[in-house]
């Protein structure tokens, strides 16, 4: 899992503000299909929002940690049912501070 400095996290939160969720995690949880889609989307966009259809905050935190460890990504933010995840691309579009 990638670690971010507070300044990098603040920068990425600002970049993610206008994004819409592109991956949805339903009642089935973190399935192979969800991991594959999140991986492909991260490869294209670097920074994505994921919507989780679970009312349990602890379950969402666990999903975020598991997702980031599987995808070698960094958790940026968890607000309500929205998770923000970052992974630099081979040719990064975002220049972190």
End-to-end C-alpha gap: 19 Å
CATH superfamily: YhbY-like
Mean pLDDT: 92
Residue runs with pLDDT of under 50 for 5 or more positions: none
Helix content: 40-55%
Looking at the overall shape, the CATH architecture is 2-Layer Sandwich
Order of helices and strands: HEHEHEE
Number of helices: 3
Describe the structure.
There is one protein chain. The protein is an alpha+beta fold and 97 residues long. It has one domain (6-86): Translation Initiation Factor IF3 (2-Layer Sandwich), CATH 3.30.110.60. The protein has 3 helices and 4 strands; from the N terminus they run H-E-H-E-H-E-E. It has a 4-stranded mixed sheet, with helices on both faces. A hairpin with a 2-residue loop joins strand 3 and strand 4. The radius of gyration is 12 Å and the shape is globular. 24% of the residues are buried. The model has no long low-confidence stretch (mean pLDDT 92).
Task: Give the helices and strands, then pairings.
Layout: H1 6-16, E1 21-25, H2 32-45, E2 47-52, H3 57-71, E3 74-79, E4 82-86
Parallel strand pairs: 1-2
Antiparallel strand pairs: 2-4, 3-4
The gist of it:
The chain has 97 residues and is an alpha+beta fold.
Keywords:
alpha+beta; 4-stranded mixed beta sheet; 3 helices; globular
């Amino acid at each position: 899992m990638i670690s971010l400095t507070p300044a990098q996290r603040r920068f990425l939160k600002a970049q993610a503000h206008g994004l819409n969720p592109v991956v949805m995690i339903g009642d089935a949880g973190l399935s192979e299909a969800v991991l594959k889609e999140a991986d492909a989307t991260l490869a294209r966009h670097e920074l994505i929002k994921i919507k989780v259809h679970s009312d349990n905050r602890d379950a969402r935190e666990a999903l975020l940690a598991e997702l980031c460890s599987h995808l070698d990504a960094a958790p940026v933010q968890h607000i309500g049912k929205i998770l923000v995840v970052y992974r630099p691309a081979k040719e990064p579009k975002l220049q972190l501070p």
